[in-house]
Amino acid sequence: MTLPFLDHPGLRFADPGTVSLPLHVLAEGDPLPETLSPAQRTFAGTQGFTAAPGTVLLLADETGKLTGALAGYGSAPQRARLRFPLAGAAARLPEGVWSLQTDLPAEVLSNECLGWLLESYRFDRYATAAAPKARLICPAGVDRARIEAMAEGEAITRDLINTPANDLGPDELETAVRDIGARHGASVTAVIGDELLAQGFPLIHAVGRASPRAPRLIELRWGAEGPDLTLVGKGVCFDTGGLNLKPGASMGLMKKDMGGAATQLGLAHMIMALGLPLRLRLLIPAVENAVAGEAFRPGDIFTSRKGLSVEINNTDAEGRLVLADALAAADEESPDLILCMATLTGAARVALGPDVPPFYTDEEGLAAALARGAATAADPLWRMPFWAPYEALIEPGIADLDNAPSGGMAGSITAALFLRRFVTETPAFAHFDIYGWRPAAQPGTPKGGFGQAARAVLSALPEVLGL
């Protein structure tokens, strides 16, 4: 599998010292730059430049030669509706190298630079998709390596989610992990097919056994010292719903059901590219939930790696099953922190929509750090509760756990409670119920595959792990 982000120049800044043109960033009400000539000032006025977000006004000298541009940054209420207000300008500028002229605070400027790079992303594996050709010089005070690592990590996530299931099954997902691991000197192994039963991963095997594409647990390890961080990502490469078959309208986006794995792999890339002083373990249960004679059935009961028995009341609640075995394996090493990401429930979308993923944790310090990281990285999150009174909803009586409680209420919470049962030896655990998809384009975020929570986590890690 080819990951085109590896050689995508638009996801990197132009080299320092490259000849560039000034791009003056103007918020609503800001005066025109004093460096403009009288003719340019008159031109800006006659063109009715309002400094709305994403607007651009090209500037020329008396000979008609391009000398710079104005970029609108809008008003505070306008910016509040956009994650990357300046990114829209990147799509409207002509080819060339630009340097920002602005007094934005360093933290805000860093996010705007990230948005600029992300605006250059296009998924063009199957059809030509023209990307903006305006390049940016990294401004003073912005951590170039960090911004580029985040842009590349997001590109990994988007590429994987956008790739259709005929070209991205469990085997291809393993290849992607191996490619990223090889780039950073990480070790990658996989437990595949019936070997899952021999090595104690019965739930992963049960969900994936009906597909001709063998299920597997993919593991990446990197780093020799520092605190232990384990990332677990749901890798359901396509979800038919199994014998509880999804209706056609609900199946259309199921290529994105490995969005948790894609996001965690993107986050792992960020961590390794930046050389964070920690020991990283990434676990991805990769399966295809198919319909065939070997498919697991409603009413089946399986004993998980943790020893907890699980009654299957809906084969379309398969994500929590594969995660359960992976989380149990993660918990056996008692790392300092386990983070789980999954495109898990429609209930989370009903509650918070596609933009804001909920997260769950019992650790107040971790919750506070994630909230701060989300604000810093323009990567919103919202904390939801592990609501103990709902524990009874996931206890069917005939087995220890029910994978799909009836009634439909509190679906994201009951899924999170289910997953928490498999993490008992680790001091800090958080679960993120992400969507992984942008239904409509915004500056910096085209329609399609979309990373969520990774940058918030990256920002929070130094505080959480004492790096």
From TrEMBL:
Gene Ontology cellular component list: cytoplasm
Keyword Transcription set for record: no
Positions of the Cytosol aminopeptidase domain: 314-321
Name used for this protein in its record: Cytochrome C oxidase subunit II
GO molecular function annotation: manganese ion binding; metalloaminopeptidase activity
Highest classification ranks of the organism: Bacteria, Pseudomonadati, Pseudomonadota, Alphaproteobacteria, Rhodobacterales
GO BP terms in the entry: proteolysis
Keywords annotated in UniProt: Aminopeptidase, Hydrolase, Manganese, Protease
Family affiliation: Belongs to the peptidase M17 family.
UniProt-listed InterPro entries: Leucine_aapep/pepB (IPR011356), Macro_dom-like (IPR043472), Peptidase_M17_C (IPR000819), Peptidase_M17_N_1 (IPR048816)
Pfam family, any one: Peptidase_M17
Domain of life: Bacteria
CDD domains noted in UniProt: Peptidase_M17
PANTHER family linked: LEUCINE AMINOPEPTIDASE-RELATED (PTHR11963), PEPTIDASE B (PTHR11963:SF20)
Organism of derivation: Paenirhodobacter enshiensis
